[in-house]
Amino acid sequence: MASKRRKGEGRVAFLANLNKFRELLDAGYTQRTIYEDHIEILEISYAQFNRYVGKYLRIKERSNEQQNKTTTENGNPRKKGIPFYHDPNAANSRDDLI
Fold first, then answer.
1. 57, 20 in Cβ contact below 8 A?
2. Burial classification of residue 14, based on how many CB atoms lie within 10 Å of its CB (0-12 exposed, 13-18 middle, 19 or more buried)
3. Do 11 and 43 contact (CB within 8 A), yes or no?
4. Model-level pTM?
5. Between helices 9-16 and 18-27, what is the axis angle to 10°?
6. What span, in angstroms and rounded, lies between the C-alpha atoms of 68 and 15?
7. Region annotation Disordered: residue ranges (predicted)?
8. Sequential DSSP letters for 22-50
9. What is the CA 89 to chain-centroid distance, rounded?
10. Residue 91: partners with Cβ closer than 8 Å, 6 or more residues away
11. Who's near 53: CB < 8 A, 6+ residues apart?
């Protein structure tokens, strides 16, 4: 009889092989291929494997994207523009429209 798996053992197995998975992804292997080659070690579902990849391996990419959204091309912080103000009474007369 197989021993009972404890909660978190799949994550521990994933984190133990984190650098290997990072190298394989950088080399161009698909997540599906990596998962299928290491399914015996991980013993987690493919969906959980994808969540772990997103959480532990894609962190740098997400932080770079967020930084790019808040800075300009030269690295300076973006200035907030003039806030939009809606005047419902604007252009109530024909002269305002022309």
1. no
2. buried
3. no
4. 0.58
5. 60
6. 28
7. 62-98
8. HHHHHHT--HHHHHHHTHHHH-S-HHHHH
9. 44
10. 97
11. 21, 25, 31
Per-residue pLDDT of 51-95, as tens digits, reads 999 999 886 655 555 555 656 566 666 666 777 777 777 777 767
* Number of Cβ within a 10 Å radius of residue 11: 16
Q: What is the C-alpha separation between 16 and 11, in angstroms, rounded?
A: 8
Per-domain residue ranges of the chain: 9-72
Q: Say which residues have a Cβ less than 8 Å from residue 69's Cβ, sequence separation at least 6.
A: none
Residue 49's nearest CA partner among 25, 26, 29, 32 is: 32
Tokens 């070690």 — which residue? 41
